[in-house]
Amino acid sequence: MVFLNVIGILMTLGAALVVLKSFLLWRGILRGGIFLFVLGFSFFALGFAIRIFELFPNSDLIFFAMGAAFMLLGAKKVFSLNPRGTDK
């Protein structure tokens, strides 16, 4: 349980960093990085809801994994952008 809380805190800090970075580089929203990140966050939140309400036993880790994968894809897409003026 402690491990899941640590993962949740790290994902929240990562979310704040990605959103801040994409708002500083408006191109991040246009390229879909934020969409992937929000999609991943929704899967992650669904995993927490399943864990809390125990809707489907032993299936919450699937949603955590899908959420983490989409969040990492979104973060990769946002952080791979070049700031304006550094395009070569």
Automatic annotation (TrEMBL):
Domain of life: Bacteria
Transmembrane segments: 6-26, 33-53, 59-79
Key words, A-Z: Membrane, Transmembrane, Transmembrane helix
Protein name as it appears in the record: Uncharacterized protein
Organism: Candidatus Giovannonibacteria bacterium RIFCSPLOWO2_12_43_8
Lineage of origin: Bacteria, Candidatus Giovannoniibacteriota
